[in-house]
């Protein structure tokens, strides 16, 4: 990978800080993940796979995973795609497509993505503005919140039904849920696994907004690492 993406650097720097200010998010909770949480959260799952592929310098796989995450309204994944097109990561630069993806990523007003979108727009030649707007509109038809959030909501509802089963009425009780992890039987508290903010679509959207509204660009700069640096960043 020729460049360290700004989003990759920023999210690596900010997410641990945010986690220190509140209980660990699902992305940082190995027990939740091993209990099958990601099976019903394809937005997070595919984004994690995409970041892992980036660290392995597998750009094609990374973009495929980010596109899958983007279908489930994952704004960071959409932002990653924008940056990869902007910097031409193992492909020719495509500023029009970069703006279009970042415009979709910024539609909720998250500061990080909105600032990058505005920066891309400001540097686009005037003759590319119409094409950029048209491309953004085309992406919104498949990846914008109007269609992607209902898609994600359906997965959350289905996953909650499948995972809770007869326990639905016991969500507030301190009951143990047993799951298998590498052939070993483990347990997790039901109120932790089934926290409504991760399963109720409206609460999930509010949780996303609360998280991403706090992440700003700051002073992190884009770097140009050596091949060995990228390799050492494997998860």
Automatic annotation (TrEMBL):
InterPro entries to which the protein is assigned, alphabetical: Sel1-like, TPR-like_helical_dom_sf
SUPFAM superfamilies documented for this protein: HCP-like (SSF81901)
Keywords carried by this UniProt record: Signal
The keyword Cell membrane belongs to this UniProt entry's keyword annotation: no
Any single Pfam family the record assigns to this protein: Sel1
Superkingdom of origin: Bacteria
Signal peptide location: 1-19
Protein name: Sel1 repeat family protein
């Amino acid at each position: 990978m020729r460049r360290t993406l700004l989003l990759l650097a920023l999210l690596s720097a900010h997410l641990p800080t945010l986690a220190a200010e509140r209980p660990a998010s699902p992305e940082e909770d190995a027990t939740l993940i091993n209990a099958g949480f990601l099976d019903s959260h394809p937005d997070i799952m595919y984004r994690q796979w995409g970041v892992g592929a980036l660290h392995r310098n597998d750009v094609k796989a990374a973009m495929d995973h980010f596109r899958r995450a983007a279908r489930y309204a994952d704004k960071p994944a959409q932002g990653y795609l924008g940056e990869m097109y902007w910097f031409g990561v193992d492909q020719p630069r495509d500023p029009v497509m970069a703006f279009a993806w970042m415009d979709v990523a910024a539609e909720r007003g998250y500061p990080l993505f909105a600032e990058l979108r505005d920066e891309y727009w400001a540097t686009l030649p005037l003759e590319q503005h119409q094409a950029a707007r048209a491309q953004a509109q085309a992406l919104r038809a498949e990846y914008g919140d109007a269609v992607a959030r209902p898609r994600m909501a359906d997965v959350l509802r289905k996953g909650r039904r499948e995972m809770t089963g007869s326990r639905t009425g016991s969500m507030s009780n301190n009951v143990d849920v047993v799951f298998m992890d590498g052939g070993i039987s483990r347990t997790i508290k039901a109120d932790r696994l089934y926290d409504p903010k991760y399963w109720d679509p409206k609460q999930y959207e509010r949780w996303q907004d609360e998280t991403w509204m706090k992440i700003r660009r700051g002073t992190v700069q884009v770097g140009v690492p050596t091949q060995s640096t990228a390799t050492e960043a494997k998860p």
